[in-house]
Design goal:
single chain, alpha/beta, 10-stranded mixed β-sheet, 17 helices, 22 strands, globular
Length: about 475
């Protein structure tokens, strides 16, 4: 309590659009995060460079200010080079010029690696391109003195929903708060760290234990933080279970602060669930994952006007959203407790049609009777399929790469030409940007539930098998 009283209040970085929400409210919302409109997804980087695209191409696709995501494992091993560069006083912008003019967010979890965070006796270890590196509060503060990133996620031991005991879940919550206190104290007392503006996100852990998650939220909220990142989700858990945890967490967090959610896939179905649960920023690799598999996203993001006739709480909307939203009476157990982890498979089964968040590389889950449970996937074009080999039309009429035909892209994929992935990433990021623009529009209009229901009914289907690979390059 004495330390908490000495710490200065966190500077506000987030402003919710519209009327103020009372505590405990769980609903979609729009806002402004240091000039970036939310809900929004981060621009994930690898070694601090855009994935598969030149920086100027990324600027043309994700127009306007954006939030560049730099996983801590990528920047940690490059701080010496930044410190030695002639423009080191500018921090990350002095070394990576393409990051200037946009926000830099140092995430503790890397959505492209599973797992990317490993527990330890004293601190956690993260995956880097040079092997695992230990990262605690001291290492993070030392790195921040050099890089001067805008937003930094505090360390936290990642505890997935499945396969973890109660002792590890409790330890993760306790550690996250202890490490957060150490970072905030250093931020306030170290002259170097106090000489520039930067903001700290607290990690929320607790596995599938609702009471432990609520305890983590209360502990993190009592400190002067600028927002929260919700850990332990986006792995193999069922959407129904994830929805209950998200509901418990977002209802326990202060509504005035932003919520970040890292996901190992981040498909449109997962995005809609997170937005409906009040998440503001999503850390996801889905557009590039799909491109790596040779898939172009071709779902529609524009809902027809006639769909607005149904009410937000109509039975039709409720039925379409049943796979995404938890029951209103969540009760006190959003998922199997840590003591019941041995029965995780049986507990996840009632999710039925959405037994697992869809992702390009997802395998089949078994239903209780042993039959494969169908998984939802969005409409996408498998450009490796035989049908595309002689199709000289564009991916879609509004694609930013429509000058390249499906047949040409199929050829590039068959000969394993890097240009194919670059063009598909360009297209998929454009589709995702438009998808989030539509989401923000419907949140402002109060029609986000109808939009999500329409999307689930018309733009999703069961996941299809990957086409057989083409002939090997000569």
């Amino acid at each position: 309590a004495e330390l908490r009283a000495k710490l200065p209040p966190a500077k506000p970085i987030f402003k919710i659009a519209g009327a103020e929400r009372p505590p405990g409210t769980v609903e979609a919302r729009t806002g402004d995060l240091l000039g970036v409109e939310t809900p929004m997804f981060t621009a994930l980087t690898s070694r601090c460079l855009p994935l598969n695209l030149r920086p100027e191409v990324l600027d043309s696709v994700l127009q306007g200010p954006r939030l560049n995501q730099l996983p801590v494992g990528d920047v940690l091993i490059r701080q010496d080079r930044v410190a030695a560069c002639p423009e080191s006083e500018e921090g990350f912008g002095g070394f990576w010029h393409h990051l200037r003019g946009n926000l830099a967010y140092c995430s503790f979890r890397n959505p492209r690696q599973n797992p990317s965070v490993h527990g330890g006796d004293t601190v956690c270890s993260v995956e880097t391109h040079g092997g695992r590196k230990k990262v605690g509060p001291k290492e993070l503060c030392s790195m921040q003195k050099v890089l001067r990133l805008n937003i930094v996620a505090a360390p936290a031991e990642e505890v997935p929903m499945e396969g973890c005991g109660n002792r590890r879940s409790v330890r993760a919550v306790t550690r996250a708060v202890d490490w957060l206190k150490e970072i905030l104290q250093a931020k306030a007392e170290d002259p170097q760290l106090a000489s520039f503006d930067w903001h700290v996100l607290a990690g929320i852990q607790g596995s599938g234990d609702v009471k432990l998650r609520q305890k983590a939220c209360a502990a993190a909220s009592s400190w002067p933080v600028s927002g929260f990142w919700i850990g332990g989700l986006g792995y193999e858990e069922a959407l129904a279970i994830r929805g209950k945890i998200l509901q418990a967490v977002t209802s326990a967090l202060p509504p005035s602060l932003p919520r970040f959610l890292p996901l190992n896939s981040g498909s449109p179905v997962e995005v809609l669930q997170a937005v409906l649960m009040g998440v503001d920023v999503l850390e996801l690799p889905y557009p590039t994952q799909a491109a790596d598999k040779g898939s172009a996203l071709v779902f529609s993001w524009e809902m027809p006007q006639e769909e607005l006739s149904s009410g937000e709480d109509s039975a039709e909307v409720a039925e379409a959203l049943a796979a995404l939203l938890p029951p209103k009476d969540v009760g006190d157990a959003a998922a199997p407790s840590a003591e019941a982890k041995a029965n995780d498979g049986e507990a996840a089964a009632p999710a039925a049609a959405v037994a697992k968040a869809p992702e390009p590389s997802a395998g089949k889950r078994k239903a209780p009777d042993g039959a494969p449970a169908p998984m939802l996937s969005v409409k996408q074009l498998k450009l490796k399929s035989p049908e595309c080999r002689e199709d000289f039309g564009p991916i879609s009429p509004d694609s930013p790469v429509q000058r390249y035909s499906r047949a040409y892209l199929c050829h590039l994929l068959e000969v394993r030409e890097l240009l194919a992935t670059m063009l598909l990433v360009h297209h998929n990021l454009y589709v995702y940007r438009q998808f989030f623009v539509a989401i923000r529009h419907h949140v402002r209009q109060g029609s986000i539930r109808r939009y999500a229901a329409w999307f689930m009914r018309t733009q999703t289907s069961e996941a299809v098998a990957e086409p057989a690979p083409g002939p090997a390059p000569k």
